[in-house]
Amino acid sequence: MSICVSDTLEAPPQLSLRYGDTTMETPKIVLQNGAGSLAAVRTRPFIPIPGTPPLVSFFTGGGFLDLGMTRAGFPVVWSLEVQKAFCDAHDHGMQTLFESQNIEGAVPTIKCREDIRKKGPGAIRREALGTLKRGDHFGMIGGPPCPDFSVGGKNRGFAGNRGQLTQLFIERICELEPSFFVIENVKGLISTRAHREFLDQELWKLEEKGYAVDLRVLNALELGVPQDRERVFIVGVRRELIRTLYRLRIEKRTRGWFPWPEDPAFNGAKKRFPWPSTSPFGAEPLMPGGLPAQLCLGPLILDVAATASLPNGTEGFAPKSKKFTIIAEGDDSRKSFKRLHRFRYSPTAAYGNNEVHLHPAQPRRLTVREAMRIQTVPDCYALPSEMPLSFKFKLIGNGVPVQLAAAVGHALRQFVLGAGTPIGRGEKEASTRARREDQSTA
Length: 442
Fold this sequence. Notes:
This protein is of the alpha/beta class. It has a domain at 28-268 and 415-440: Rossmann fold. It has 15 helices and eight strands. A six-stranded mixed beta sheet has the order 3-2-4-5-7-6, with helices on both faces. Strands 1-8 form a two-stranded antiparallel ribbon. Helix 2 links the parallel strand 2 (55-58) and strand 3. Helix 2 (64-71) packs across helix 14. The protein is globular, with a radius of gyration of 22 Å. The chain starts with 27 loop residues before the first strand and ends with a helix.
């Protein structure tokens, strides 16, 4: 019988707050080094910081979430992925990354190539946590496959085979009892009422097991990624650990206590900046004033010779349709054949059925390297040449932008190491204002 599920489990009380909302009564912990350190973590080497609790990773895929967490300082000591092609891609990519950056130590590999449904908590504990001493802190991270929650997918929710993996992952968290965890999924997990209600029941199980739980929809664009990609992140930390670190009691059903990453330079980016609409294909449009270059695709993919010289830089589907020379730059209004604009961000990089976005200035779709750049994957992370193109683009589209993962990991690492400051109701507004002013000058 699952430790997490009980016939006598108390029914969850009604949660009055919308997801991501908070009130003046919500306990709050803030991090004092905000965007200045967030900018620094974007360029950190992929090396764990000593003294940081280890992570075990599930549904690892190509390891983009792991890369972000490692860049934030976490060591990933064990990972699980069942698809062989993704396992091979992960191991190859990590090998090329370590070799090119001369990173010392063992290269991360997929330690378990089995289905989580067949891998019980006892086996995971022996394999992944055998070297930990009693009382040592560790975390669990994972982004369960999400087509059953996607508005553009099957939308079967927790009743679907993939949806049940989210439920099973929550059970594994309850069974293994990490000090903290991160779950990543599509926005549909909370934007659809039926999914949201079921998720609420699942989160109540975690709270009954002693976790404070918080969740928020984060847009990668607002954290410096040139992509409009919204994902829901669920963070849980044992309430006893929070009491020890901050002398703060987080009650069940409380939301808004976690210090989610923010970058004032990009807050509200979609509506804040004067993004261009379309330009005739083959033209040389000028960059509008006031646009942040970091959120524009041009610097990443416009220099075709430079990207072609990188690993996977020439791998892409051969263009066969006349549409490649007709569709205007920036015309992403259609369901397929969406063309990017050099001075705009990319729509969500969700590549399925060989439907990959069109290059702004070339009569073709993006190459593998160009797609990985949009996902902020380092150029020295390479996918194996023998891997089919459709698998490569699926892996890329399934992944978390590395920079988004690093931002979440950065906030989480500081939080679990006690680097935050609890504040009272009267201090919140002034603290937030002061922090943003400090970030804007960083």
